[in-house]
Amino acid sequence: xxxxxxxxxxxxxxxxxxxxxxxxxxxxxxxxxxxxxxxxxxxxxxxxxxxxxxxxxxxxxxxxxxxxxxxxxxxxxxxxxxxxxxxxxxxxxxxxxxxxxxxxxxxxxxxxxxxxxxxxxxxxxxxxxxxxxxxxxxxxxxxxxxxxxxxxxxxxxxxxxxxxxxxxxxxxxxxxxxxxxxxxxxxxxxxxxxxxxxxxxxxxxxxxxxxxxxxxxxxxxxxxxxxxxxxxxxxxxxxxxxxxxxxxxxxxxxxxxxxxxxxxxxxxxxxxxxxxxxxxxxxxxxxxxxxxxxxxxxxxxxxxxxxxxxxxxxxxxxxxxxxxxxxxxxxxxxxxxxxxxxxxxxxxxxxxxxxxxxxxxxxxxxxxxxxxxxxxxxxxxx
Amino acid sequence: xxxxxxxxxxxxxxxxxxxxxxxxxxxxxxxxxxxxxxxxxxxxxxxxxxxxxxxxxxxxxxxxxxxxxxxxxxxxxxxxxxxxxxxxxxxxxxxxxxxxxxxxxxxxxxxxxxxxxxxxxxxxxxxxxxxxxxxxxxxxxxxxxxxxxxxxxxxxxxxxxxxxxxxxxxxxxxxxxxxxxxxxxxxxxxx
Lengths: 382, 191
Ligand SMILES: NC(=O)c1ccc[n+]([C@@H]2O[C@H](COP(=O)([O-])OP(=O)(O)OC[C@H]3O[C@@H](n4cnc5c(N)ncnc54)[C@H](O)[C@@H]3O)[C@@H](O)[C@H]2O)c1
Ligand SMILES: [Zn+2]
Ligand SMILES: [Zn+2]
Hints:
The structure holds two protein chains of two kinds. By secondary structure, chain A is of the alpha/beta class. Chain A has two domains: 2-161 and 326-378, Quinone Oxidoreductase, Chain A, domain 1 (Alpha-Beta Complex), CATH 3.90.180; 163-322, NAD(P)-binding Rossmann-like Domain (Rossmann fold, 3-Layer(aba) Sandwich). Chain A has helices spanning 39-45, 153-158, 162-172, 188-199, 212-222, 235-242, 263-271, 280-288, 310-315, 327-339, 358-367; strands spanning 2-8, 11-16, 28-36, 62-69, 81-84, 87-88, 116-117, 134-137, 145-146, 180-184, 204-209, 225-228, 248-253, 289-297, 319-322, 349-354, 374-378. In chain A, helix 3 crosses helix 10, helix 4 (188-199) runs parallel beside helix 5 and helix 6 runs parallel beside helix 8 (280-288). The mean pLDDT of chain A is 97. Chain B starts with 13 loop residues before the first helix and ends with a helix. Chain B has a domain at 146-191. Chain B is 45% helix and 0% strand. Chain B has helices at residues 14-20, 82-91, 99-122, 129-133, 137-140, 155-190. The chains are: A alpha/beta, B mainly alpha. The interface between A and B is large, with 121 and 100 residues. The structure holds nicotinamide-adenine-dinucleotide and zinc ion (2 copies). One zinc ion binds at residues 89-90, 93, 95-96, 104-106 of chain A.
C-alpha cells in the first residue's frame, strides 16, 4: 500500500508499505477514505515530540471502510463505513469505564501519561496512523462508529478530533451564561472552541491569532470578535482594557507548544528544544483571565518542562483544566448538533490533498501558505 | 467595574445573542455537556472483557517503567534498530518523570534520522530534500503572497530555521573534513 512516512524534521514522503494485519483478536483493518492533517501533526513534523521514529506513518484523523476484522469483533463487519476517534482505548480499564478514553491505561506501552493515539509517535504508543491506504484499528468494538447515512464524510472526519476537541475545550472552561471567553489560536481547534463557547452560553467570544486569514474565518465561521496580536505591543494589557480591567472569565489556549509571539520562547522550544513547548499563549491566557477564572490548556505540549507562569496562576486562584479529548463520549451530542445544523464542521476545510502530494500538504500547513486552515488527505484507494 | 461589586458590562445581551447566533445556549445546561462530570461511569463502552486478551509480543517491546507490565495492546510500527534503537531502549530504563528519559529519546530521534538517511542512500532510495520538504509548494501555493504584507509573527524566526539548517550542514561538513584530514594524516604517518 501507499503511505506517508516521516523522514526526519520537516521531511515526509510517500512509500510502499506492507498492508497492516490483524495483530489482536479485537483489531480491524480499515481502508482509509479520508484523512486529515492536524495541528498536532506539526509537533511531530517539526521534531518536537520525543520518540518520533523515521518510517512512522502519521495521521490520527481518518474515516474508512472496514476491510477485515479479528475473531472477537462483534460490533463491526467488513464493508462498514466508519469514523475512528483519534484515541485508541480498551473500553475496560480504570479510565475508559469512566469515559476518559484519552487516558486509557491499556493501549500505550511507551508512556503511562497518555493513552494510545494513532500515528502520534511512540510516546503515544507506536501505532501507525491513517495517512495511508490502510490502517490497523485496535479495539474495533470500542472506538469506531458507523457513519450515519445522513452525515457528510467531510463532517465525519472532522468529528474524529478537531471538532470534539474544540467543543471539549469550551466544556473545560465551565462557561456560564454571559461569560467573556478568549480563545488563543484560530486553527481548527480554536475555531471549534469559539463556536462551541456560544453553544454553552458565552456572552462574548474573542479569538486571537496573528494570521489575518484565519481571523477572518473566526469571524465568519464562529461569529467571534477577533484580534491580531501583532497589532498590539501587549496583548494582555489590551485584553484588560477591553474587559474594563476585570479580565476574561475563561481563556482557552488552543495554540500549544509552537506558540509565536516571543522570540525567546520560540528559540528555546521549537528551535533548540530546550523546553517541552513555547508557552506564550498559555502565559497570555493565565495573565488575561480574571482572578478566580478558568484557563483551559487544550493545545498540545511536549513531555519536557515548559516555562509556564505558575506564580500568577496560583496568586490569581485560577482553575486550569486540560486533557486530550476523549472523542467518543462527545459523539452522541455532536452528531445531534451536526444533524440539526447547529454545527457544520466541514466549513473549515480549505484543502484536499492527494496522498501522493502529502509532503506539500505538510509544508502548506506548517508554513500556513495559501490560506490553509484544515487540509484533508485523499488516499489513492479512496 | 472590577472595583465595585457589580460585574462590568463587557458582554452582549443574551437575548440579542440568541437571535444572532444559531445554537446559542443549547448546551448552557451542564446536563447537556457530555464531559460533565469529568468521570462518568459507563458499563457499555463496547468492551466485552474485564481485561483484554494479550497481543503477541514478537520482539522485546520497550515499555515505560511506570507501567506494571507490557500493555495488552501496543503499536508495532518501527521497532528500535541500530544505534538509535540502543539509545531508545536505554531511555526506557528511566521513568517518564526523569528528564534523562526524554532527552535520550530526543537524541535518539536525531541519530535515527542520520542512520536512516545513510541507510536510504545505501539501499538506493536516497532522500530527496526537494520533494520531501514539499518546498515546491512555495511556488504553487503563493509562498511570497502568503507572507508579505501580512501581520505574521513567524516571519522573524523563519530566518533562524535557515540558520539552524545551515549550521547543521556546516557542522556535518566540518566533521567530515576533520575526519578526512585525520585519516589522511594517519595514512601519511603510516608511510
Ligand atoms: N487536547 C487535545 O485533545 C488536542 C487535540 C487536537 C489538537 N490539539 C492541539 O491543539 C492545538 C491547535 O491545533 P490546531 O489543529 O488548531 O493547530 P494549528 O496549528 O492549525 O493552529 C494553531 C494556531 O495558533 C496560532 N498562534 C500561534 N501563536 C499564537 C499565540 N501566541 N496566540 C494566539 N494564536 C497563536 C497559529 O497562527 C495558528 O493559527 C495544537 O497544539 C494541537 O496539538 C489538542
Ligand atoms: Zn489532532
Ligand atoms: Zn482503557
